[in-house]
Design brief:
This protein is α+β, with helices and mostly antiparallel strands. It has one domain (2-124): 60s Ribosomal Protein L30, Chain: A, CATH 3.30.1330. The protein contains two helices and six strands. It has helices at 47-65, 85-95, and strands at residues 2-5, 20-23, 26-32, 72-79, 102-107, 117-124. Helix 1 runs parallel beside helix 2 (85-95). It is globular and about 40 Å long.
């Protein structure tokens, strides 16, 4: 059975999608960008600051669904500039330092609202 996951502790969707969907013990979290859920606006800052905010948003959705970072099995990281890869990875590695999930990282020509990084996440119980 499909369950929609929504929390006020992560940004509201900026288009037609759900924050996350849970199906049969698997949680699919939509790509998160560095929107502050309180203000509804993109945060200021470089890719490190944006990655920190993105990971906080992901954590809020995980918690709302009853998951933790330890349940994450796959992420996809989208960067507006591949030269930001190392800086993003430095922040990312502070969360996923043991048993890191599978991951893909890509440079894209643009992200919503001028974001520098977007991360989508899959977690399994």
């Amino acid at each position: 059975m499909k369950k929609i996951i929504a929390t006020e502790h992560a940004p509201k969707a900026v288009a037609t999608y759900s924050q996350a969907i849970e199906v049969n013990g698997t949680l699919y979290i939509s790509g998160q960008i560095a929107i502050d859920p309180l203000s509804g606006k993109m945060i200021d800052g470089d890719v490190k600051a944006q990655t920190e905010r993105v990971l906080k948003n992901i954590e809020a959705v995980l918690i709302a669904a009853g998951y933790t970072y330890k349940d994450v099995v796959k992420t996809t990281c989208l960067l507006s500039n591949i030269n930001d890869y190392q800086a993003m990875n430095e922040v990312y590695g502070k969360i996923f330092f043991e048993e890191a999930p599978a991951r893909a990282a890509f440079a894209v020509s643009g992200l919503p609202l001028g974001a520098l990084v977007e991360i989508e996440t899959i977690a399994v119980k």
